[in-house]
Amino acid sequence: MLDPIEFIHNASSISKKSMNRLKLKTNPFSEKPIRGNTKFFVGRTSELSEIADILGAAQYGSVANAAIVGTKGIGKSSILNILYYASKRHNHWVVELEASQITARQFLIQLMHGIIKDNLFSVDGTLSSNYMKHSQKIIEIYRRLSNYSDKTPVHYPREKIERDLRYLLNEVKEEGKLCVILIDEADQFAKRSCLGLLQFFHSFLYEDDILTFLAGPPTMVEDLTKISPAIRDRIPKIINMPPLSKDEAYDLIKRRLEDSQVSGAKGYEPFTKASVERIIEECDGIPRRIIMTCSEAVSIAIKTGNLDIGEDTVRSAMKNLGISVGHQILNHLTPAQSKIIKAMAELGGSSTVTELSGILNNSTGTIGTHLSDIFEMGYIYKERDGYNVYYTLSKELKDVLISKNTNF
């Protein structure tokens, strides 16, 4: 009879021994965003310079809100985390918010809760001595927010919430300091249900001493503008995140390995030179893709008992991840986009707008609009052949949809 506790203990012990044979103390390829630790951060000199210019100008009254845009896995969250700690070092107030379909009132509640909890309280959960003269008012506001959160009752209306926010910004915050708001996945605001929030942003993003950075996909600002045209003027700066260069991609792998290698390990061990070259070539400079591939390759090597991670192991890792990434893409698409993608798979993975229109019984204009959106997200490619433009599925989607075992 199998003892499950003993099984887990033995399996984990084997994994630890295998890791040592691979000349690694731990698997160094974590997908979590960088939290203040910059030793794994590579490149991005141009983007960091843009952010530094924006932050520096804002301190002297020239506030210009910015959008940080790029494909999935390009490093937007890591940039926001770097920005968080850089702002903290300057003693600015910093608030990290997650985008969701919320009202302006709920946004204000989340913002104020973040300002007080993350900036006015000490690590031990008590009010910082810097703000003791405002203690009664701050504690009163914080208790109200903590008790009710998004379900704040009628007796705490939006007008009073806005007055309390102004009190914090104008009376409590030190002069010359900023309130920096970081919003990841802000493309979620590009929905009709968020129209009220975006209209609220028109005036809110012009508030003195408030600097906002919104992160999202390449089309984020365009999508927000479609819902509320005036929002474009409130986000004058757009910071584009390109893929890493080959040298930066090599550096990314090298830094992480060096941090976890046992004494005596050399170069890119346990990866072979050829396997690293394969990873760099296939991952297109996307940091998350590089990290995920390396991590999966290490896991495969542990399970198979390999001492070196060669090209075959990397190919297996990419095959495994291609399927899982493909399913993630499908889950991210809208129902209409998903139908188009599956129709493309039925046509062999590549097709024109006209061909898809015939299969789906929909207008070429509608199909073309959806294809443009999917193309901007990086999930399909396009190329011209004479008068025709062909759209082609990405490798990740082909791995999921074009298979003998796939049922549509």
Q: pLDDT below 50 for ≥5 consecutive residues: which ranges? A: 404-408
Q: Remind me, CATH topology of the largest domain?
A: Rossmann fold
Largest sheet: 5 strands, parallel
Spatial extent as radius of gyration: 25 Å
Termini Cα gap: 41 Å
CATH homologous superfamily placement of the largest domain: P-loop containing nucleotide triphosphate hydrolases
Quick check: average pLDDT? 86
Shape: globular
> What is the number of independent domains?
3
CATH architectural arrangement of the largest domain: 3-Layer(aba) Sandwich
Report the order of strands and helices: HHEHEHHHEHEHHEHHHHHEHHEEH
Q: Report the sheet-strand fraction.
A: 5-15%
How large is the count of helical segments? 17
Give the key terms.
about 400 residues; alpha/beta; Helicase, Ruva Protein, domain 3; Rossmann fold; Arc Repressor Mutant, subunit A; three-stranded antiparallel β-sheet; about 10% strand; DNA-binding transcription factor activity; Regulatory protein ArsR; P-loop_NTPase
